[in-house]
UniProtKB/TrEMBL annotation:
InterPro entries: Peptidase_M76_ATP23. Its EC number is 3.4.24.-. The keyword Ion transport does not apply. Belongs to the peptidase M76 family. This is Mitochondrial inner membrane protease ATP23. It is found in: Mitochondrion inner membrane. It comes from Babjeviella inositovora NRRL Y-12698. Pfam families: Peptidase_M76.
Amino acid sequence: MSESTSTATASDPASLKGFTWWRRKITYQTGLGLTPEAKLQFETDLTIKTREEDCARCYTYRDQMMQTSPIVRFMLENAQKVGANISDANIVCDYCPELMGGGFHPELGIVLCQNRILSKTHLEDTLTHELVHAFDHNKFNVDWLDLRHHACSEIRASTLSGECRLWNEIKKTGFGGFGRKFQTCVKRRAAISVAANPNCKDKEQAERVVDEVFESCFKDTRPFDEVYK
């Protein structure tokens, strides 16, 4: 193999597979025989390769959930019924620098943060959460800059998506406060989202707004008949 061919291969993440990739990784970790330029190139390749793998995995999970998940299919159907323009065309995977699993934009659709998705179940919960926002936006004409509107949709999304299911909370926080774990999780997640709203002053205001609307929004399970914890 010529030097020019070797250089081209080294800079092409798609070609770095199997033994070749791991040999380079070990070389990088040990630092043996690695020039500063080669180290920089490896870091670049690693970033690109990781993002490509995360993206492919995210889209595979998305497609599987849209085809087989009862809750995703149910929410997608009901969001579309109330006028949400949501389909696989605008449910996209992308890299997110923020600590978030996904996001909804009324005009652009839904983003799934490929670098934050931990499993198929995590993606299922995240996609369902964002589909609740899509449903709410069209059903209730949500003003996302109104903190009470925002808080209500976040409460509903965390309640209905499954992300606060009891076993998840027990694994995170133990058995203490068993009877209130579900509600505590919903409030916590809603307050974190509201705190990021540009019209929210601070964490304390977010928590206060969530508390103000919690009872009525927590009880509103539309389009579901009830919530399974």
